[in-house]
Each structure stands twice: as C-alpha cells, then as structure tokens.
Write a structure and sequence with these properties.
alpha+beta, Rossmann fold, elongated, binds adenosine-5'-triphosphate
C-alpha cells in the first residue's frame, strides 16, 4: 500500500452534541509511520476527534479518510483501527501467547496463521521469552508491551491511543513513553495519541496538534511548536515553566546592519531588541504581546542598556536550576537561572532577553513572523 493510501485524513470534521460544538472543522493528516499527538486542555475535543476516527462517534459533517477511503459511514469494526484506551486490559488467566491470540479468534485464521502473527508481534515487542507466562508473572513494562501487542496483532490500518499512560506512576510513564515511541516507529502505520500531558506529547509525537475549544490552533513538530508558537495560546500552553507574556507597545523599528531592531515600551520602561523582519509591518504605537521563555531571560547590571528593572519576589529551587519570580509594576516575570546564580529576595536587578529569543505577537495574539 502506498503512503498516500494508508494515511488518516480529516477534512473539515465537525461534531455537535446538541448545542455544543465539540469539534469545529478540524483538518489533519497523519502519515504512515507518523505519530501525531492531540494535546490540549480538558474539554477541547481531543477524545471526540479520536472517537470519530475510530467510528465510535459519528461526525456531524466533514470527511474522515483512512487509507484513502471515506469511512464516515463504516462501523467501527469495519474500519480496522486499533484503539487502545489504556494499557493493561490483559486476561489474568491467559498466558501472554493466549492474550495475544485472543483478538484473532474472530478473524477465523488457521492455527498456523495465528502462530505466525504471534511470532511476528513477539519479535517486534521483544516478548519471545515470556510467551508462556501469565500477567501476574510479568513486570509492569512487560505487561504494557503485551497490551500493545494485543492491539497490533490484528494488523490494523492505524493506531489510536487515548491517554495511554495516564494510569501509570511517574517513573513507569517515563520509561514507557520512550518504549512506545520505539515500538510505533517499527510498525509503520499512522498513529494518533490523545494526551493532556505535554511532556508525553513532546517525547512521543512526530507532530503535535494543539487544540482549544474544538479547533486545532497549530500542528507542528515539537521543536517548531516551542520555537514558533503561532499565537499566545500555544505560546502559553507549550513549555514549562510557562512563557512570559507581557503587554507592550511598539515604538519604532529600524534596520541595522541587515537586521531589524525594534524599540518597545514595556512596564513603564523602554528597551530595544533584535526582532523578526516582519515586525516592520506593524505601525508604531501598535499594541503587542512580548513572549519570553523563562530560560531566555538573563540578568544584567541595572545600569546596562536595554534592560527591564525588577525586584526578586520569590525563588523556587529546581535542582540544578532555580525559578526566580521577578516583579515589575505588578507583573510577574518568571526567569530560570543556574542554581549558582547569586540572587536574593528583594534584590533589584536588570533583566533582558537573550538575542533572538523574543517572540512578538500582534494585537490579535498571532505571532508576527
Ligand atoms: P478531556 O481531556 O477532559 O477528556 P477532551 O479534550 O478529550 O477532554 P472531549 O471529551 O472530546 O474533550 O469533549 C469535548 C466537549 O464535548 C466537552 O465539552 C464535553 O463535555 C463534550 N462532550 C463529549 N462527549 C459528549 C457527549 N456524548 N454528549 C454531550 N457532550 C459531550
């Protein structure tokens, strides 16, 4: 099957529950071998989107295509997708091998064909030495791999996971998300994972679709989401500690040695910084929001040029780093410094953004780029 024929494609997919618009005209393509995470706050429509792909919910309008075929009218079973709500649904009285064979019984395969499928899955997931054990004789990681095995053994066209790791403790989660990523990479099918945990999305996804109020705000690689958040919502949602978003006014722009520099009025002070050339499109006096990640701030002597003056309000140790809360005109500025930085509560400091790490959003909240 060619790549174009095996992907998942959503075109203008919408879901209404009575008066509630749960999913609003979503367009999304998930390629073969690609893992896309749907990420967003509670109630933004992630699970409903996944359930529509699986056939557990009917779309109100729009097209859902799997492997090039419109599946809106197909019942869940006929879509041949593997949907895993959470792992661990293993039958305790069956061996690993029997657990893996279970989903195949409805398919009327020969014994030899079943054995071959199991051997194949066991090879991919490294289960060959534990096929005769029962779930209570397995470690947590092994149980998880068997559960994944059960969902792939029927050779589905795609994989759908709803909060797959939410039941696990933190340590196991960390281990699992890298393992799952490795396994999914070997399967060469499109995969959609719903999660509200951004670390999970950042580690497992090739691309992340950030959702809000039923809409996709941005679909991008983890790196691009972090470096070029398309609007203030995505900017504030991705990255911890959260990006600082500070209201400001653009005063002027100028060209200097081929680069664009802008002067802003912010928190009662003025400073200038290099910016994307696109900022020149904004008129002087334009209201903007400046976005600075906490790790993009650096302290500077208070009498240095282009600094904002603030006082240290709170220091939170974070191991090798510390999260320093600065305050200026009632605005909290979060700043991550090395734990060795010499700072104390109440101290007056100058703070500035490291070069080329300033994000400028226009009055509507869109990234200027
Ligand atoms: P969470 O992370 O909390 O699961 P989510 O992003 O997955 O949230 P959905 O479960 O898709 O969000 O829900 C989207 C919206 O649709 C919510 O407002 C929810 O209350 C509503 N909703 C979901 N299912 C139904 C239903 N069967 N009937 C009515 N409203 C529903």
């Amino acid at each position: 099957m060619s790549q174009a024929q095996s992907d998942i494609r959503l075109v203008g997919v919408t879901k209404r529950f009575q008066n509630l618009l749960a999913v609003d005209s979503v367009d999304l393509t998930v390629d073969v071998g690609e893992v896309v995470c749907l990420l967003g706050p509670s109630g933004c429509g992630k699970t409903t989107t996944l359930r529509m792909i699986a056939g557990l919910e009917n779309a109100t309008s729009g097209d859902i295509l799997i492997a090039g075929r419109r599946v809106n009218e197909l019942p869940a079973r006929a879509r041949n997708v593997a949907m895993t709500f959470q792992f661990y649904a293993l039958y305790p009285s069956l061996t690993v091998e029997e657990n893996l064979a279970y989903p195949l019984h409805a398919d009327r395969l020969s014994r030899a064909a079943i054995a071959e499928r199991i051997a194949q899955v066991a090879r991919v997931l490294d289960l060959e030495t534990i096929l005769k054990r029962r779930p209570h004789q397995l470690g947590e990681g092994e149980k998880q791999r068997v559960a994944v095995g059960r969902s792939i053994v029927r050779q589905p066209t795609c994989f759908l996971f709803d909060e797959p790791l939410s039941r696990l403790d933190i340590q196991l989660r960390q281990q699992m998300r890298t393992q799952i990523k490795e396994v999914l990479e070997r399967l060469d099918k499109p995969t959609v994972i719903v999660t509200h945990d951004q670390i999970e999305a950042l580690t497992m996804a090739d691309r992340i679709a950030v959702m809000r109020d039923g809409r996709i705000e941005q679909v991008a690689t983890p790196h691009d989401l972090f470096a070029y958040p398309t609007n203030v919502f995505v900017a504030g949602f991705i990255g911890t500690p959260q990006m600082n978003l500070v209201p400001a006014t653009l005063e002027a722009t100028a060209e200097e040695e081929g680069a664009t520099r802008a002067r802003f009025a912010v928190l009662g002070e003025q400073f200038s910084a290099p910016v994307e050339a696109a900022v020149r499109r904004l008129a002087p006096g334009a209201k903007v929001t400046l976005g600075v990640r906490p790790r993009s701030f650096e302290l500077a002597p208070p009498d240095a040029a282009d600094v904002v003056h603030a006082s240290i309000d709170l220091i939170e140790p974070m191991g090798a780093e510390m999260l320093v809360h600065l305050v200026r005109q009632g605005q909290d500025l979060r700043c991550v410094l090395a734990h060795t930085a010499r700072v104390r509560l109440g101290q007056e400091v100058g703070v500035r953004c490291k070069p080329n790490q300033l994000h400028v959003f226009d009055e509507a909240g869109s990234l200027v780029r």
